[in-house]
Write a structure and sequence with these properties.
globular, about 15% strand, Immunoglobulin-like, 4 domains, three-stranded antiparallel sheet, 12 strands, about 500 residues, 19 helices, Zincin-like, disordered N terminus, alpha+beta
């Protein structure tokens, strides 16, 4: 044992491990000097001017180019949303680093600048903030239901703006919302949406996600064509965004031509979440699929249209069923015997899913994590993360990548190097729901995998890890992280940490 301790001490000295000396390694690496203001303009096809005035940028991209990208993207979003909502409510839109969200004005935050480089980082942020220009604002009289609409409607419109141009991103937003909006996630690592703009609360994120799903569910109740008629009508009828859930419900009922009180009461007021199940039934013919849709939780008068895809050896058949009560039978004509059926393939309905159930179980376990995690309780934290991983062996919640990475960090800090390498390798090869979370988790896994490799006197492997991490997208490399897995004394960017690892491996 003494020989092993001595060998480890010599290794740390010989390697000049900057990872152990991160606070000293960054001495003098201050923030970039303040940048001069930059202003760029863009125009929509109908002549509306979008001005972006900002001071902040990010590495390798000039401030002017950042502003230009934001301006052009903002103009494109306005062009996309105007047919849905009507003419833009202001004659000009300004995005400024020192402004607040007001009519005709959006703050050009650092998050908006980062997300302007593509749809990897917070893809819904800019379209959501642009959509707010048409939509309801909150004041002291706003109810919880009004807050849900005020947060959810801009998120729904952001999803609509992304759906055609970036379908994978739009699908990830919905999948993440279906997993996360139904349960609190106090112990789970932050994902793409939860790394939101400064000032965003967990309650706001949950409201956005739930609101997105509720409005997608509304499409199945009155159909999307009627939702598209509701949106400009409610904006015209209540200018300045002065409409409540009750006002929105009234317009929906007028256009749908029927009572929708059950929908708004259940989804907005009572925060209901139904369970929907598909059951196969015996069929007398191989060319017919028989079954029933079982719905639990909706009020008796409630009905949603549930889609399904029937997979056969000769292709897939799309079908949908409008539910009636607790059990709705159905039959589908198919060209060959059904191999499988996918329920709600487009994830249009807010409902309980296996991913949400598994995520809820993991969340309940990780709610017991010690806070803060320190050397005296790191073993307890490791045990909890292992339990959370074991609770979802099929990875239905798509949490395994982020949980494995965090577990690997803690195992390294606890000198469980073999276990750390195994979990960090799983994180490197894993995937999360959103691309940003996938790449960020992978980058952190490369970092700590390299640190352990350096501890084990394998500088070549550590250098390969550092280089692989530094090849990740810039928006990921800019993410600020604690300098150490536990008891950290500050933050650095992932890029800085990987460069320290690279230097240490090179000098080994």
């Amino acid at each position: 044992m003494q020989r092993a301790i001595a060998a480890r001490g010599r290794l740390c000295q010989a390697a000049a491990l900057a990872i152990v000396l991160w606070p000293q390694a960054i001495a003098g690496q201050g923030a970039n000097p303040e940048l001069k203001p930059t202003s760029v303009e863009a125009k929509t096809p109908d002549g509306l001017v979008v001005e972006v005035a900002c001071r902040s940028g990010f590495d390798a991209v000039s401030v002017a180019e950042n502003c230009r990208v934001v301006a052009n993207r903002t103009a494109a979003i306005i062009t996309k949303l105007s047919p849905l909502l009507g003419p833009f409510p202001s004659g000009r839109l300004k995005l400024s680093g020192d402004s607040h969200s007001l009519p005709g004005q959006i703050p050009a935050s650092a998050d908006i600048l980062r997300s302007s480089a593509g749809d990897l980082y917070l893809p819904d942020l800019l379209p959501r903030e642009v959509a707010r220009q048409w939509l309801p604002y909150l004041d002291s009289r706003s109810s919880a239901s009004d807050a849900l609409l005020a947060e959810g409607l801009p998120e729904y419109l952001a999803w609509r703006s992304l759906r055609d141009a970036h379908p994978e991103v739009a699908r990830a937003l919905v999948a993440e919302a279906l997993r996360d909006a139904v349960v609190a996630e106090p112990g789970l690592p932050a994902g793409a949406s939860t790394g939101a703009a400064v000032g965003t609360t967990a309650e706001q994120i949950a409201a956005r996600q739930r609101g997105l799903l509720v409005l997608r569910t509304l499409e199945t109740v009155i159909d999307q064509e009627r939702v598209d008629r509701v949106l400009p009508q409610v904006v015209r009828r209540y200018p300045g965004g002065r409409f409540s859930v009750a006002d929105f419900e009234k317009v929906c009922e007028e256009i749908a031509g029927r009572d929708l009180s059950w929908f708004f009461r259940y989804f907005f007021v009572d925060r209901g979440i139904p369970e929907i199940e598909l059951r196969r039934l015996p069929s007398e013919s191989p060319g017919i699929v028989a079954g029933e849709i079982v719905v639990r939780g909706l009020p008796p008068e409630g009905s949603v249209r549930v889609g399904m895809t029937v997979h056969t050896a000769q292709g897939s058949v799309e079908h949908s069923v409008a539910t009636r009560g607790a059990v709705t039978p159905f039959t589908v004509n198919v060209p060959a015997p059904a191999l499988d059926i996918t329920l709600d393939p487009d994830q249009r309905i807010l409902r309980w899913t296996d991913a949400a159930r598994r995520s809820q179980a993991q969340s309940q376990m990780l709610a017991e994590l010690p806070s803060p995690i320190a050397r005296k309780n790191v073993a307890e934290a490791i045990a909890l993360y292992r339990r959370a991983l074991a609770a979802d062996p099929e990875n239905a919640s798509l949490r395994a990548q982020s949980l494995s990475e965090r577990l690997g960090e803690l195992e390294w800090a606890h000198d469980e190097w073999a276990a750390a390498l195994e979990d960090l390798e799983a994180a490197v090869n894993g995937h999360s729901i959103a691309a940003y979370e996938t790449y960020l988790t992978r980058g952190k896994a490369y970092l700590y995998h390299g640190v352990v490799s350096l501890h084990q006197s394998r500088p070549k492997d550590a250098l390969e890890d550092a280089r692989a991490g530094l090849a990740l997208p810039l928006a990921v490399l800019q993410q600020l992280l604690p300098r150490e897995p536990i008891e950290s004394r500050g933050e650095m960017s992932l890029q800085q940490l990987l460069k320290i690892l690279q230097d240490a491996a090179t000098r080994y």
